[in-house]
Structures are given as structure tokens and as C-alpha cells.
Design goal:
Order of helices and strands: HHEEEHEHEE
Strand content: 25-35%
Radius of gyration: 17 Å
Bound molecules: acetyl coenzyme *A
Shape: globular
Helix content: 25-40%
Largest sheet: 6 strands, mixed
Structural class: alpha+beta
């Protein structure tokens, strides 16, 4: 992306992508907190508006929605602030890709970019995440494509009572 529009301009579109694809949703300020605290770690995949961006960003008070690219995938990531094991590590808060853009390698690319940034910017020892035990697509991505391992099962982790796999991937080889 060029410097315009910024990641912050895209937050509503990231939130829409999240709400469309996952039941775990967050207030806009939580996305903002990620962007301000760990600006290197979160990434988006976008479709640019037809015809590109218009100079000046449109009329004051006018509808700017056509000016912004649509977010079709995002990874929202952070560093664990108080790691219980004392090990500096990253955490994937949320990842999703719009149905229209799946199986194109977008999620894999977003994850690899975030993992690299965790290692290079924060010397993260590993990256962790939670995933529903029924989520076969995400499990395939994490375990088979990216090499994550299941650390443990967290019983009734989700609000609807489903269990989660707590997974992690070593990042020390990327330092
Ligand atoms: N079935 C089986 N394997 C799959 C599937 C699927 N539906 N989707 C991805 N994979 C595996 C494959 O191995 C694939 O490689 P291949 O296409 O060469 O076979 C590999 O993952 C990479 O796939 P991508 O194209 O990078 O994945 P995509 O961009 O389609 O996004 C995702 C995958 C994020 C799981 C998407 O299906 C999605 O948004 N699902 C709904 C939201 C979700 O479940 N998010 C994860 C929740 S956990 C969390 O947020 C920490």
C-alpha cells in the first residue's frame, strides 16, 4: 500500500472483514490499540478502488467510501504483554480472508509477514494462537502449511463452549 490511505483509514474495513468471517469480534479501539502499539505486526490484503484514488480524497463531507480500498484479508497480531512463561512471544489475535478471495495464498502470506516482523522487530521466541477444534481449514493452514504445533487443548475456550487448540510456532530460526 502507498502511504494513502493509511492502515488507520482501513480499520472500519478490517472490522467488517472480521465480522463477516468470524464470531469473535472486537471494538474498533482494540484494532487501534494493535495498530498503535505494534504497528509492524498487522497486515491487510486489499482490492484497490476501480480507477484508483482521486486527488484530494473527495469533497469535504462527501462520501469517501469509494476512495478506500476494500480489505479482503487481514492478520491482527500483537506481542504478549505479560507472558506467563517469561518468554517474549507474539500472538495472532485474529486472521480472516473474505470467501471471494480464499485459496489464493492470502492467509499464508499474511501470516508469514507477521511472523517475520515478530522475529525481526521484537525478537519473538515463538508465535502463539488459538483455533477452534472444528476449524479444519485454519488447522490445515497453521499445522500443515506453516508448521505450528498443538501445545494443548483449552476446554470451553470460546463463548459458545467450543474447545480451542492452543498452537505455537518457534521463530528463533528467523532472528
Ligand atoms: N480446506 C483445507 N485446507 C485449507 C483450506 C480449506 N478450506 N483453506 C486453506 N487451507 C490450507 C491449505 O493447505 C492451503 O494451501 P493450498 O491452497 O495450497 O492447498 C493453505 O491452507 C493456505 O491457504 P490460503 O489460501 O493461504 O488460505 P486462505 O487465504 O483461503 O485463508 C482462512 C484461510 C484464513 C482459514 C480462511 O478460510 C478464513 O478466513 N476462514 C474463516 C475465518 C477463520 O477461520 N479464521 C481463522 C480463525 S483462528 C484465528 O483467528 C487465530
Amino acid at each position: 500500500l502507498s502511504s494513502y490511505p493509511s492502515y488507520i483509514d482501513l480499520l472500519p474495513s478490517i472490522q467488517t472483514c472480521n465480522i463477516t468471517n468470524l464470531p469473535e469480534n472486537y471494538f474498533l479501539k482494540y484494532y487501534l490499540y494493535h495498530a498503535l502499539t505494534w504497528p509492524q505486526l498487522s497486515f491487510v490484503a486489499v482490492v484497490r478502488p476501480k480507477g484508483g484514488y482521486k486527488a484530494g480524497g473527495g469533497k469535504a463531507g462527501g462520501d469517501l467510501s469509494g476512495q478506500y480500498p476494500k480489505v479482503v484479508g487481514y492478520v491482527l497480531a500483537k506481542m504478549e504483554e505479560e507472558p506467563t512463561d517469561g518468554m517474549q512471544h507474539g500472538h495472532i489475535t485474529s486472521l480472516s480472508v473474505m470467501r471471494t478471495h480464499r485459496r489464493l495464498g492470502i492467509a499464508e502470506r499474511l501470516m508469514r509477514m507477521s511472523q517475520r516482523a515478530m522475529a525481526e522487530s521484537h525478537r519473538a521466541n515463538y508465535v502463539s494462537l488459538h483455533v477452534r477444534v472444528s476449524n479444519t481449514a485454519a488447522l490445515r493452514l497453521y499445522r500443515d502449511t506453516l508448521g505450528f504445533e498443538v501445545e494443548k487443548i483449552e476446554s470451553k475456550y470460546y463463548a459458545d463452549g467450543e474447545d480451542a487448540y492452543a498452537m505455537r510456532l518457534n521463530l528463533q530460526t528467523m532472528w
